[in-house]
Write a structure and sequence with these properties.
single chain; alpha/beta; Sec_MonoDiacylglyc_Lipase; eight-stranded mixed β-sheet; two-stranded antiparallel sheet; 12 strands
Length: 274
């Protein structure tokens, strides 16, 4: 399996490696910062063309910039503290960029974005001098998926190109009207994986005005992946308000939310014919 860095469409190889990266970002130091050396070793053990990992850690937000021979990838880490973002004033939308985004998710993204993007810009200058620009991917699981979404919106806002976004078990991140603007620009290169009953994907509630973006890849109970979850599943999502209360969420106990479950399903998908 390999990454096709110049295609914006969904590919199984791209999905696998983005899930693999989203899993690796959880490798951390005793202080909970990204373990740059550990992450790089983990990735290079499977693909020696990974070059460097740069980490960012501020407040409760962590992210990395990965340099591969063929592409750049911004990867954002989920956190058990996501419950706090959903359970207080941070859950309300704030107006930034081209619309309204979840305040807590936007703040977490801001905490780590600038140093990583500045590091990328330095690398881009080297790419340009070499006549070989490398494209950008963005990935994340849980809160990290929400942060990847806000980061993609930042790039859209300044018309900076990126190849695609892959998220796993992410919560809703922006209001419906903002989601319509986002989807008009990037729906077909945003791939949002949802594992069966992962309730994190159902918060914040639609009743608060929030909406998902991109193309949903639904992982059914049998671990098969579907790109059209159908009206029945959408109905279940609509009536699932009883589990949308943020106070009911404990990330260490939520069935179907673990990143390894997403990665295992995508590995199985890659073994299927066709």
């Amino acid at each position: 399996m390999h990454v096709d860095p110049y295609t914006t469409r969904l590919t199984r190889g791209n999905a696998y490696w983005m899930a693999r990266i989203a899993q690796s970002v959880f490798i951390k130091t005793p202080s909970h910062a990204p373990d740059e050396a550990g992450i790089l070793k983990d990735l290079k053990d499977e693909d020696p063309d990974f070059i460097k990992v740069t980490g960012a850690d501020k407040n409760s937000a962590q992210a990395i910039l990965i340099e591969h021979r063929d592409y750049w990838c911004f990867a954002f880490r989920g956190s058990d503290e996501m419950r706090d973002w959903l359970d207080n004033v941070n859950a309300f939308p704030t107006r930034i960029l081209f619309g309204e985004f979840h305040r807590g998710f936007a703040r977490s993204t801001d905490d780590v974005w600038e140093p990583l993007f500045e590091r990328y810009l330095v690398g881009r200058q080297v790419d340009r001098a070499a006549g070989r620009p490398r494209p950008i991917f963005l990935v994340g699981h849980s809160l990290g998926g929400a942060m990847a979404t806000v980061a993609a919106a930042k790039l859209l806002h300044v018309d900076h190109p990126f190849t695609s976004v892959y998220t796993f078990g992410q919560p809703r991140t922006m209001t419906l009207e903002t989601a319509r603007i986002f989807n008009n620009e990037a729906r077909d290169r945003f791939f949002r994986f949802q594992n069966n009953g992962d309730i994190v994907t159902r918060v914040p509630s639609r009743l608060m005005g929030y909406s998902h973006v991109g193309i949903c890849l639904y992982i059914a109970q049998d671990k098969r992946i579907h790109d059209d979850i159908g009206l029945w599943f959408r109905f279940l999502d609509t009536v699932g308000g009883a589990v949308e209360a943020a106070s009911a969420i404990r990330l260490d106990a939520v069935e179907d939310h673990a990143m390894i479950d997403y990665l295992d399903a995508i590995r199985a998908w890659n073994r299927e014919p066709g």
